[in-house]
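SAMPLE LOG
Freezer: B-3
Tube label: C17
Construct: single chain, 62 aa
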Amino acid sequence: MAEKKVKLDEEKCVGCGICVDTCEKGVLEMTDDVLKIAHLEKCDGCNSCVEACPNEALSVSE
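STRUCTURE (predicted):
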């Protein structure tokens, strides 16, 4: 079974950074007000960033 990982829909992301503060693993980073999935290998698919995102720009899938 494949591991669950976070995915970003760049069109929906407004760069608020709420997800970065929510992710305990340090997967996400803001660079020049743009969200980046900087450390995907650390993602455990916990869904906390997805739940925190007010614009539904993040999802978790295999």
